[in-house]
């Protein structure tokens, strides 16, 4: 006769259970809690007034968020549910259950403080002898905005809608002036209709103003590039005494184009080309990773679809962090002069160093998107998504540090 272990769910524990017994010593959740408990969270805790009901400690909420991002759970509602369903989350929350409003508010409230916590964790990795900053590879990847590209309107389409709405407003005003309003359909309120049309016209005017401001920024940038090219061409002609062949660069035109778009859901996101073809409403997330450990040492988010303009800001970030993490090998990161970099990349050593990018930062992006499942920002607006991207990379670093420490232990 078969001998089975009976699943008895009714007998009470002889002694109170301890959450410390729920996870093995090498579990990622336990490591995240240990690291966060060692962080200086005074910038967070001092912002609590101390009035009203007791608040969950920032260390608890931060650990829930970080473990969530590390394991592919980003929604505050799903995180709340995980504190009931998941043993790991129950351990992190000490068997408490912060509601989704508390988690969402905490995430929005302390985005600015994440950059300091990010650096604290990197410093800890260095103290653990895990991180030894040397060669740094950086790149960008497109992350979908929390807005559909179908919510975008082009400048040309806005102008057509404006003309249509203005005509409708004139018709409504004409009806309002008529003494006999028999032609007005039942249930239609002229004041309400006029208000609705005027609100839409105001929203479109605001959208056009933002498109115009972007167009002016683009024109100034393209004009500077154009002037530089023309000046360079003139200098070459003067040096050689010969007129250069080919057509000179075309001067940029000011003002918005009909194709210029703005998204009504997240107007700070941009339409960007994505890998594999096509376009998405997205942000360009930047990361600099240490070649030896694949730990992300600097982050950023930009609205520009191309990465070349992000080299200097990333170098500035790495330079600012040098006092904490140490100086990087500048032979691969030096962005100026362009001619020196171009020459260096043609050498055997330069090609080998450039190839590190394919096995360092690109796999990091692949794991963040495919394994951790982060393909779309939960927040909106450049400042907020920059903070969220820092949170993603912070979670990746702790996930990676956990692997590296276990490897060192073995």
Structural summary, described in words:
The protein is 53% helix and 9% strand. It has 410 residues and is an alpha+beta fold. Helix 1 runs antiparallel to helix 3, helix 3 crosses helix 6 and helix 3 packs across helix 16. The longest helix is centred in the middle third of the chain and has 51 residues. The protein contains 16 helices and 6 strands. It has 3 domains: 91 residues, no CATH class; 137 residues; 105 residues, no CATH class. The strands form 2 sheets. Strands 1, 4, 5 and 6 form a 4-stranded antiparallel β-sheet that branches.
How are the SSEs ordered, and which strands pair?
Layout: H1 28-37, H2 42-45, H3 58-70, H4 76-85, H5 87-92, H6 100-109, H7 114-127, E1 136-144, E2 152-154, H8 155-177, H9 190-240, E3 261-263, E4 270-273, E5 279-290, E6 296-302, H10 311-320, H11 322-325, H12 330-333, H13 338-346, H14 348-359, H15 361-370, H16 382-409
């Amino acid at each position: 006769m078969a001998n089975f272990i009976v699943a008895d769910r009714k007998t009470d524990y002889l002694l109170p259970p301890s959450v410390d017994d729920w996870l093995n010593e090498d579990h990622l959740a336990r490591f995240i809690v240990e690291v966060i408990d060692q962080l200086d969270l005074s910038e967070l805790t001092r912002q609590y007034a101390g009035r009203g009901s007791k608040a969950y400690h920032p260390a608890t909420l931060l650990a829930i968020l970080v473990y969530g991002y590390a394991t592919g759970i980003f929604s505050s509602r799903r995180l709340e549910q995980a504190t009931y369903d998941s043993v790991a989350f129950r351990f992190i929350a000490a068997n408490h259950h912060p509601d989704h409003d508390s988690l969402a508010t905490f995430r929005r409230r302390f985005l600015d403080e994440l950059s300091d916590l990010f650096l604290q964790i990197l410093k800890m990795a260095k103290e653990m002898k895990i991180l030894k900053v040397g060669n740094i590879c950086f790149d960008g990847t497109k992350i979908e905005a929390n807005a559909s590209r179908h919510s975008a309107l082009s400048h040309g389409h806005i102008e057509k809608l404006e003309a249509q709405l203005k005509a409708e407003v004139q018709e409504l005003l004409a009806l309002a002036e008529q003494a006999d309003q028999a032609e007005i359909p039942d249930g239609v309120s002229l004041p309400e209709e006029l208000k609705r049309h005027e609100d839409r016209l105001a929203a479109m005017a605001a959208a056009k103003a933002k498109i115009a401001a972007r167009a002016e920024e683009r024109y100034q940038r393209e004009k500077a590039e154009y002037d530089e090219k023309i000046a360079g061409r003139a200098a070459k002609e003067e040096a050689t005494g010969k007129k250069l062949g080919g057509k000179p660069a075309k001067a940029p035109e000011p003002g918005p184009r009909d194709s210029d778009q703005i998204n009504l859901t997240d107007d700070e996101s941009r339409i960007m080309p994505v890998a594999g073809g096509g376009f998405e409403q997205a942000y360009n997330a930047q990361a600099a990773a240490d070649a030896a450990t694949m730990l992300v040492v600097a982050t950023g988010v930009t609205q520009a679809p191309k990465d070349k303009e992000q080299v200097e800001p990333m170098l500035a970030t790495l330079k600012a962090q040098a006092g904490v993490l140490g100086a990087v090998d500048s032979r691969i990161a030096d962005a100026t002069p362009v001619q020196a970099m171009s020459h260096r990349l043609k050498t055997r050593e330069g090609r080998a160093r450039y190839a590190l990018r394919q096995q360092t930062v690109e796999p990091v992006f692949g794991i963040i998107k495919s394994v951790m499942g982060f393909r779309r920002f939960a927040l909106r607006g450049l400042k907020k998504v920059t903070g969220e991207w820092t949170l993603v990379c912070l979670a990746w670093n702790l996930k990676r540090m956990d692997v590296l420490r276990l490897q060192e232990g073995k």
